[in-house]
Each structure stands twice: as C-alpha cells, then as structure tokens.
Amino acid sequence: MTETHQTEQILPIESLCEPTKFKRFTEQYNGFTSELKYLNELDDIFLTLKTDTAQIMEEFFSKLKTGTKVKIPFPADRLAELTKNSKYCSLRLKVLNRKAHLDKAADKENILEAREKVNQANFDLQNLLHEKGHLRREIEKCRENRFTFKDILLMNEEFAARTPGHSSTLVVNSKMGIDDNNQDDSFEKISSHHLTIQRFKNEMIECQRLEAERDEKRRKKLLLTQELAEKQAKTVETRREIEKFLVASSILRSFIVTQPENDD
C-alpha cells in the first residue's frame, strides 16, 4: 500500500500541463520563490499534507471496496500536527496574499508614476517639435525678406576715393599674389570676404574720424559759448557805463545851459 502511494507521488507535474505553460509557470514560480524564501518551507508542509491525505484516502477506499467497517486509525498527535501545519500554511498563505496585494498596489503606483513621466516627456517633446517648426518658419521668413544692407555695394567709387593710396588693398594684394602695379583693377580682383573686411575697417576709420570731428566741434562750441557769455557780460557792463555817462552828461548840460542866463 505504501509502495502504491509512493508510485503515485512520483508523478511529474509536466504531465499535468503543456510544456510551454509548465516552463512559464516554473519561471514565475522560481522568481516568486527567490523573492519569498520561506515558500520552500511551505512546499515541504504541503507535500507532507498531500502524502498524509493520499494515505488516508487510499485506506478509506480500500476498506470501502472490501465492505469492512471504515475506521481509519490516525494518531491524535499526528492529527494535531497536521492541524498545526494546516493552520501554519493558512497563515503563510494569508501573509503571501497580503504581500501580493501590497506589491500589486505598489506596482500600480509605480506604473502610474512612470506613465505620468512618459506623458510629460511626450508633452515636452511635442512642445520642442512645435518650437522647432516655429523657428524653422521664422528662419525661412528671415531668409525670404530683403534687407537694405544687401543692396549696398561693397565697392563703389566713393569707397575707392576715401581709401588713400589703397594701402589696405595693397596688403591684400600682396597676400593674394596680385601685382601691386595694377592698382586700378585690384578692387575687382580681391575676394568678397577680404573686400568686406576692408570695407568694415574703412567704416571704422571713418567712424573714428567723424567721432574726432564731433569732439572737436563740441570743444569749439564750448569755447564759443564761454566767449559769447563773456562778451555778453561786457556788453551789459558797457551799457551800464553808457547809461551812467548819459545821466552825468544831462546834469552837466543843464548846468551849462543855466549858467549864461545867470551872467545876463
């Protein structure tokens, strides 16, 4: 009887399900037992319960077939141990169930946080793409617009006349291998880059010259203003002296006019 029970106990679990399902179940089971180490203890207890239950059922059915009175001898201490183990297994299962629920709730929170981060990242990406498209449109508009500086020639007669001796042009010509004797065509032969640099240098020189002229005119204006103020002060003083002289001359005139009458 014991041998039959042992033969039934050795039946592999692979025979109860498909190989793919068994493999997936084994992977999940191994991952779960690696997280909860005390499941090995539960496996031993469940195996013991299964063995005892199978033994009891086998004795019950064998006696039931023979027609004998069914009375399964089972020690009280063994029954108490099985009851204790079953309660322990039930408690462990409750702990596992509670932990599984807590892990599920934590996973849900983590999933929600990750989903919010993904949504925020997608929103930021959409904003960046929108801003990128806006900047591209603005750049295209700026490229299509015509500006006044594009119509200004880098080289004209005024610029050539304001460049004394073409000194900067000669420097560029010496670097580019252009003959210095052919100064009339030198402005046409130099590259636009060097011509632009030369024009900027000339504009800077002109700005400095105009700034110096403005400072000189301001200085002259200040001197003229001071001189004018001094002349105005002298004019006022002279006018006062003339008024005093006129008053004194009127008194003297009246005295001279009245003097001959007294002599008569």
Automatic annotation (TrEMBL):
Coiled coil: 111-145, 200-234
Keyword Transcription regulation (UniProt): no
An annotated GO cellular component: THO complex part of transcription export complex
Keyword annotations of the record: Coiled coil, Nucleus
Cellular compartment(s): Nucleus
Major location category of this protein: nucleus
Organism domain of life: Eukaryota
Cross-referenced InterPro entries: THO_Thoc5
Gene Ontology molecular function, alphabetical: mRNA binding
GO BP: mRNA export from nucleus
Record carries keyword Glycoprotein: no
Similarity field: Belongs to the THOC5 family.
Stated name of the protein: 4873_t:CDS:1
UniProt source species: Ambispora leptoticha
